[in-house]
Amino acid sequence: MVFQKPVLLKRSVIENLKFGGQATTHRDSIDNALLLARLKDKQHFPAKLLSGGEKQRLVLTRALLREPKLLVLDEPTASLDPASAQIIEQLIQDFTVQGGKVIFVSHDIGQAKRLGSEIIFLHKGKVMEHSIASDFFNNPASEEAKAYLKGHIII
Q: How far is C-alpha 99 from the geometric centre of its chain's CA atoms?
């Protein structure tokens, strides 16, 4: 699980990636991950000195290096600059193309349209809809989803 607020080790970027598993011990895998996350030039920086977007890319990359089948993300691009958001979305897309499954929370309709294949729409803790993304965005069934997609704040 990757949280909205990145959890980093008090180590360098590369040491954060090496931490925690056999899947991360291969230098080629780490180098490739650094390139994909656009962190190669910062691999020896202390992780705590990275920007918010760089920190989020680091923790997502660390999770991906463990080769999970399922990745759970809590608003992975909330409050990030567009460049970091785009890199994170690309990492997520690459993971799904390779057969990985992603469950993520997002209030960003555009992001849900770009990344979602299935949508589970929650309101007040209840599942209001669960459908294929195209069905949800083109023909939502619940009044709450219709209002949300129109840009209304639903309470």
A: 16
Spans in the chain with pLDDT lower than 70: 20-26
Cα distance between residue 73 and residue 70, in whole Å: 10
pTM: 0.87
**Pair 131, 141: CB distance under 8 Å:** yes
SS3 call for 74: strand
Separation of alpha carbons 122 and 46, rounded Å: 38
Tell me how far apart the alpha carbons of residues 96 and 126 are, in angstroms, rounded to a whole number: 27
Beta bridge partners of 102: 71
Compute the distance between CA of residue 143 and CA of residue 69 in angstroms, rounded to an integer. Answer: 34
Q: What is the pLDDT of residue 93?
A: 96
Report residue 7: phi and psi, to 5°.
-105, 110
